[in-house]
Amino acid sequence: MSLQFVVDGLLTGSMIGLGAIGVTLTYSILRFSNFAHGDFMAWGTYATLAVVSAVGATFGKAAPIAPLSFGWPLLVALVIGMAFTAILALLLDKVLFSRLRSQGQAIIVVMASFGASMALRSLLEFTFTSRPTYFSRAIQIAMPVGFGIRITPDQIALLLLTAVLVLGVHLLMTRTQTGRSMQALSQNAALARIVGIDVASVVRVTWVIGGALACVAGVMIGILVQIRPFMGFDMLLPMFAAAILGGIGSIPGAVLGGLIIGLAEAGAVQLIGAEWRAAVSFIILMAVLFVRPIGLFGVRER
Amino acid sequence: MMDLLGYGAFFLTTALIFSLVTLGLNLQWGLTGLFNVGLAGFVAIGAYTSALLTTPDDAARLGGFGLPILVGWLGAMIVGGIAAALTGMATLRLRSDYLAITTFGVAVVVQLVALNAQKLTSGPFGIGFIPRPFGSLAETPLLFNLSNLAVVSAVTLIAYLALEHLSRSPWGRVLKALREDERAAISLGKSARFYRVQAFAVGGAIMALAGALQAHFTGFIAPDNYLPILTFQVWVMLIVGGSGSNLGAVIGSILVWGIWAGSGTLTSVLFAPEQQARAASLQIVAIGVMLCVILLIRPNGLFGDRLRRPRLGKQAKVTTAKSSSGS
């Protein structure tokens, strides 16, 4: 067994982990499993792609930054895409989720997110067709880094980006007032309200972080794999599994859960074949639910 | 005229098979409050089980036992029920969302097995030559469709009556009690988890039976029949009909299937052939938006949930129910 799976696993794990942060935040703060989260990912990616094409059409084709396959237009587009996805999430919350949440039945909100997921995904399919697209069709040469592992400059850059984002979100959650409010609300909503935490603003921040990170994860998939309307939906099970494995509400947990699932998937591809890849997250999910349903860093529900 | 009658019978048969799935879901969600977003998986389990048991021997894959169709149906119900019971046992002691995520995973895995376990399912090519009830009548489509409609109607009617009876039985009353006020029911000595696993298993068995009926009606099954879109359709059917009501489940299924088939015909008339795939995705968008709108405006569907009517000592719940249905 070649050690190459470590790189593949870390990359898949980063995508899953970044997505799972949003899932875990929505679950712990808004108290529902958002089935539309994967579709935020796909929408963010298509938005980024649209901006990249628009920039390309306006300013002509920009040369990629030295060893990478993409240039400054993608970086600009990524920021716009993140903002777009955050706004999409806020909008969906305003139109749909917040109204249903006020009725106090969490499961109705889950059902609505399921409907929204179908509608969002099919709308993408309608607009862009189901044919896969790419940010760049250029092929990068992978550099050997020892132990039989090869890695491309894109992959290194994306791993670094993930690390920076995760660190940033972690600091936000632990060092800022907003982050502490978010934690308070997730641990005891009633008490948090009593001490005067601005629930509406915490909810907004939750959607903004979740949406923006989903967009980054989607763009990573777009750069390394391909862009399809179903790309986010296929990530849904791994993201849920990562959030539950890490412990609902825990951001380091979501990322670690994502990495574990990514590595397990990559290992499984080598051992039993790529066609069973999607079953890995299900098996891990079931194992966690049977053995330790609160996950690695979870706290018991109060 | 004869063609129209034949199509009518075909349409109703399909709609009634859907309504059987919806009845199963109504037992799980409407009666017990268990959220299953992987029902396509259970339908697929039923279809494949019955196909394996009843098809003639096939060298390319395991099985093909050539058993009678009724044995296939029974086998489908047993396997579907066991699969649902196992899923329930893993998750029903946890928060309700976990069941949603797990059932979603079940559907993904069943889909994977259907696609990749070639020895069992023939993979993407599907299984053909599934024996059809009254297959000898296939020469005269009208007679064939009508006799199949009779079979499916009979099964649906039996399931409907049984479920109506069940929901009024002491067993059904425990389920409703658990849905409405878990603590009160537990304090009366009812094991919440045990009853829920039972309800989930029975619901799964009904869904699997529906899958088997469908397989024997069309004579051919493939993994593509059991995509998440199926789960979605059935949910819309239940919500439109009104969760909690078996009658609503049946009528909602026929209504939504009518809208679905009608809009499908409409898009095939309105759009050029190369645009049809896109039009089909627009159809899904419309139904998705419809689901969300119904949840917002009329969460109780057409036939509402007759059980959450105002009762003494439930003032708080009554006011929320009123404000949600009135807005």
UniProtKB/TrEMBL annotation, chain A:
Gene Ontology terms for molecular function: L-isoleucine transmembrane transporter activity; L-leucine transmembrane transporter activity; L-phenylalanine transmembrane transporter activity; L-valine transmembrane transporter activity
Example GO BP: L-alanine transport
Source species, domain of life: Bacteria
Keywords: Amino-acid transport, Cell inner membrane, Cell membrane, Membrane, Transmembrane, Transmembrane helix, Transport
GO CC annotations on file: plasma membrane
Record has Cell membrane as a keyword: yes
Location within or outside the cell: Cell membrane
InterPro entries named among the record's database cross-references: ABC_transp_permease, BCAA_transport_permease
UniProt membrane topology term: Multi-pass membrane protein
Protein name: Branched-chain amino acid ABC transporter permease
Native source organism of the sequence: Mesorhizobium huakuii
Automatic annotation (TrEMBL), chain B:
Domain of life according to the entry: Bacteria
Molecular-function annotations in GO: branched-chain amino acid transmembrane transporter activity
Regions that span the bilayer: 6-27, 34-53, 65-86, 98-117, 142-163, 199-222, 234-260, 280-297
Compartments where found: Cell membrane
Pfam entry (one): BPD_transp_2
A GO term from the CC aspect: plasma membrane
Keyword S-adenosyl-L-methionine: no
Broad class of where this protein is predominantly found: membrane
Keywords attached to this entry: Cell membrane, Membrane, Transmembrane, Transmembrane helix
CDD domains: TM_PBP1_LivM_like
Membrane topology, as annotated: Multi-pass membrane protein
Entries under PANTHER family matching the protein: HIGH-AFFINITY BRANCHED-CHAIN AMINO ACID TRANSPORT PROTEIN BRAE, HIGH-AFFINITY BRANCHED-CHAIN AMINO ACID TRANSPORT SYSTEM PERMEASE
Protein's recorded name: Branched-chain amino acid ABC transporter permease
Source species: Mesorhizobium huakuii
